[in-house]
């Protein structure tokens, strides 16, 4: 856990939050509220989550109209086919406490474009998409995207014509959302693997659209950690 | 605009201008100096920021600190073991902290303070135990 | 003075193998609204906690879907789970939310989820 990652300990190099984190975890274990194994088990579960299953769900939906119908009507059931069980994958077997178990898949059309935000915190479909990016958590994104969505999307490099309806999804309760974008031109005959590669995390949040040849999010500065997690 | 909508837009505007309080000659003003719009603004749920005006910023990614990762896991496991549910967690870390901490601390800083607070509030630990433990942990690094 | 006792088992017993919000299915009674209804969001007092964003208050919207049953967040935030209600996915025209929203983009919309107590028929 935390301690083993630490460099040579120096009083000036440990922040009050690092101290508090260790204190809270150790006290909770000493009082029997949870065990060190519980903590380890959940940490291992989190190492398994990332955006690939959501990308695969989109690719499958592009290839199979019946599966697409299932995805937009029952996202939790559709997730099973890409290896994600929203209820039982995690040690709790009642979903993750923070993300609940009600995935909704938002289908874009040539005249409708979805983008997801949680203005009240940063609700995010972690079991199928991994941890949220930092910008998604900022008050700035949460303040502005609901009111000036076209301006914010243009800052992400996405300019949308007048005839496309922009629909902001404010993810405020127990549902969690991914966007099912329109399959781009130039992908005829592609396999599920090839299609899944162009469905990036940003496409699944809705601030980008898939393009042939583009398999990573737009390049942005990465704020470094002082003592980073090694995954 | 209906009267309700006028009130809402005024609220969003006042809320966006509230700042963590700095010193003025008299804090805690006389009651007649605070109208309903200001009572509402000061007692608002501080997580409710949708629609507040703000300027464009550079969108950034971020590496995760070890303590941030552990904090997230601790919060999830506290819920798994029934110490709180996710709604109680969200209420405590996004609203109960108040505007100053909400805007001034980092994202997981609020999660962490709240995880400590629930143990004290529900009397699973005493505040003195927390203090002693923090003192002891800090000494490990001296 | 004795310490309070908290029931740490009730949620895990109810939701294990079932999921949340699935574990509240069938507990909210008959839904008051149906898909397509025009409703207005009430501007109810909301001290201490709410997940009905202020920017939606007093605005009209359309019921798009009945999504699930669950305790209202204003109560569940203190672990009061006795009175689940229906949650609705609702869609607003952006022009009904923001006075300055440009006419050129009058078809733009915003969708969110609200619980039944916050809604009234127009």
Account of the 3D structure:
- The complex is a heterotrimer of chains A (231), B (142) and C (122).
- Chain A has 231 residues and is of the alpha/beta class.
- Chain A folds into 2 domains: 13-47, no CATH class; 52-205, Nitrile Hydratase, Chain A.
- In chain A, 37% of the residues lie in helices and 11% in strands.
- In chain A, the strands form 2 sheets. Chain A has a two-stranded parallel sheet. Chain A has a two-stranded parallel ribbon with strand order 2-3.
- The radius of gyration of chain A is 20 Å and the shape is globular.
- The relative contact order of chain A is 0.15.
- Chain B has 2 domains: 3-42, no CATH class; 66-140, Nitrile hydratase, beta subunit (Cyclin A, domain 1, Orthogonal Bundle), CATH 1.10.472.20.
- Chain B has helices at residues 3-17, 36-42, 66-80, 86-96, 98-104, 107-121, 127-140, and one strand at residues 61-62.
- The mean pLDDT of chain B is 93.
- By secondary structure, chain C is an alpha+beta fold.
- Chain C has one domain: SH3 type barrels (Roll), CATH 2.30.30.
- Chain C has helices spanning 10-15, 73-76, 94-97, and strands spanning 38-41, 60-70, 85-93, 109-115, 119-121.
- Classes of the chains: A alpha/beta (231), B mainly alpha (142), C alpha+beta (122).
- Chain A binds chain C through residues 76, 86-88, 92-95, 100-102, 104, 119-120, 146-147, 149-150, 162, 165-175, and chain C through 11-12, 15-23, 51, 53, 55, 67-68, 70, 73, 87, 89, 91, 94, 97-98, 101, 104-105, 107-115.
- Strand 5 of chain A pairs parallel with strand 1 (61-62) of chain B, so a sheet runs across the interface.
């Amino acid at each position: 856990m935390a301690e083993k990652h630490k460099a040579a300990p120096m009083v000036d190099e440990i922040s009050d939050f690092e101290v508090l984190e260790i204190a809270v975890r150790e006290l909770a274990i000493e009082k029997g509220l949870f065990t060190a194994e519980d903590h380890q088990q959940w940490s291992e579960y989190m190492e398994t989550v990332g955006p690939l299953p959501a990308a695969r769900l989109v690719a499958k939906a592009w290839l199979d109209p019946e599966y697409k119908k299932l995805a937009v009507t029952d996202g939790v059931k559709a997730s099973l086919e890409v290896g994600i069980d929203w209820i039982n994958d995690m040690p709790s077997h009642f979903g993750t406490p923070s993300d609940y178990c009600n995935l909704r898949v938002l289908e874009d059309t040539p005249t409708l474009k979805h983008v997801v935000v949680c203005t009240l915190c940063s609700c995010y479909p972690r079991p199928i998409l991994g941890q949220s990016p930092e910008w998604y958590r900022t008050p700035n994104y949460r303040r502005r995207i609901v009111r000036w969505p076209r301006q914010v999307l243009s800052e992400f490099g996405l300019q949308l014509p007048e005839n496309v309806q922009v629909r902001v999804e404010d993810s405020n309760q127990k549902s969690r959302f991914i966007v099912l974008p329109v399959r781009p031109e130039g992908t005829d005959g592609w396999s599920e693997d090839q299609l899944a590669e162009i469905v990036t995390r940003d496409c699944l949040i809705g601030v980008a659209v898939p393009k042939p040849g583009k398999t990573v999010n737009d390049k942005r500065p990465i704020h470094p950690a002082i003592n980073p997690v090694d995954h | 605009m209906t009267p309700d909508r006028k009130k809402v837009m005024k609220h969003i505007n006042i809320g966006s201008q509230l700042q963590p309080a700095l010193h003025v000659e008299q804090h805690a003003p006389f009651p007649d100096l605070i109208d309903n719009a200001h009572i509402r603004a000061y007692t608002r749920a501080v997580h409710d920021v949708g629609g507040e005006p703000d300027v464009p910023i550079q969108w950034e990614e971020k590496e995760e600190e070890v303590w941030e990762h552990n904090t997230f896991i601790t919060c999830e496991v506290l819920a798994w073991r029934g110490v709180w549910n996710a709604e109680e967690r969200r209420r405590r870390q996004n609203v109960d902290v108040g505007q100053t901490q909400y805007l001034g601390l980092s994202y997981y800083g609020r999660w962490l303070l709240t995880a400590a607070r629930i143990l004290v509030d529900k009397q699973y630990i005493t505040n003195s135990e927390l203090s002693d433990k923090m003192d002891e942990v800090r000494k490990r690094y001296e | 003075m004795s310490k309070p006792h908290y029931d740490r088992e009730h949620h895990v017993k109810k939701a294990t193998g079932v999921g949340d919000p699935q574990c509240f299915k069938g507990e909210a009674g008959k839904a008051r609204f149906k898909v397509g209804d025009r409703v207005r969001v009430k501007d109810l007092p909301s001290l201490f906690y709410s997940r009905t964003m202020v920017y939606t208050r007093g605005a009209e919207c359309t019921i798009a879907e009945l999504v699930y049953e669950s305790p209202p967040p204003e109560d569940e935030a203190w672990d009061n789970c006795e009175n689940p209600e229906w949650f609705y996915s609702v869609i607003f025209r952006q022009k009904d939310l923001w006075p300055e929203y440009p006419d050129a983009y009058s078809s733009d919309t915003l969708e969110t989820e609200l619980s039944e107590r916050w809604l009234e028929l127009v």
